[in-house]
């Protein structure tokens, strides 16, 4: 009897041990499923954030594109105006030189001063005053020529100032284009990086979903197995029949020889 009880107890303990082990496995799988769900949710949030970032990058790229187009127009306009100035300035300088030569010839012919530097002569107020006082006609002529020269020099100064301004605008437009191009390249690099991140997120999500389905199947199988084990009655591997139930045999114990 003690032997039978030991067998029953051991079998019952073995069954309980199996159920407990399966329950532990099921709990572990449930934990893995929950972790995967959290990862999938985090991935979806990250994907949404990355998509929003890509949208902003796309907007900024369009903005940079328009800025580059605008700067290019400004640069083209500055180059066109500079080209026109580069033609006007030499023409004005040529006219100015002719007027200088003309008044120089008049002064040389009238007063026989000989060759002299025009600008130096104009700066000498005493010589100009002497000319004006000695010859009225020369005074009128000199005034007329002087006004022409003054206007030419004024126009020349304005053109040279305009040229400097245009050169400054040209440099600024070129600088802005360069900076915009640099920014555009940075945005393109960010776009490539974020698109690669989206691809990786989707790939991981696919793997997580696949693993999640596999874990669900395993959990379902374990659950069915546990339910079966809990409902099953313990069966013994041998059929224990009491000896006194055997027909044709004497009750136990007996004395003498049994034939």
Give a brief rundown of this model.
By secondary structure, the chain is an all-alpha fold. The protein is 86% helix and 0% strand.
How is this structure best described in words?
This protein has 259 residues and is an all-alpha fold. It has a single domain (2-234), classed as Orthogonal Bundle (Helix Hairpins), CATH 1.10.287.2610. Helix content is 86%, strand content 0%. The chain has helices at 2-111, 118-123, 125-134, 136-231. Helix 1 runs antiparallel to helix 4 (136-231) and helix 3 crosses helix 4 (136-231). The chain is rod-shaped and about 135 Å long. The two termini are 27 Å apart. Residues 1-15, 113-119 and 233-254 have low confidence and may be disordered.
Which terms would index this structure?
Helix Hairpins, 86% helix, 259 residues, single chain
Question: What coarse outline follows from CA principal-axis ratios?
Answer: rod-shaped
Give the helix tally.
Answer: 4
CATH class: Mainly Alpha
Question: What is the helical fraction, as a range of percent?
Answer: over 70%
Distance between the first and last residues' Cα: 27 Å
Structural Rg: 54 Å
CATH architecture: Orthogonal Bundle
In CATH, the topology is named: Helix Hairpins
DSSP E strands, number = 0
Element string (H = helix, E = strand): HHHH
Beta-strand proportion:
under 5%
Whole-number average pLDDT? 74
- Unreliable segments of 5+ consecutive residues: 1-15, 113-119, 233-254
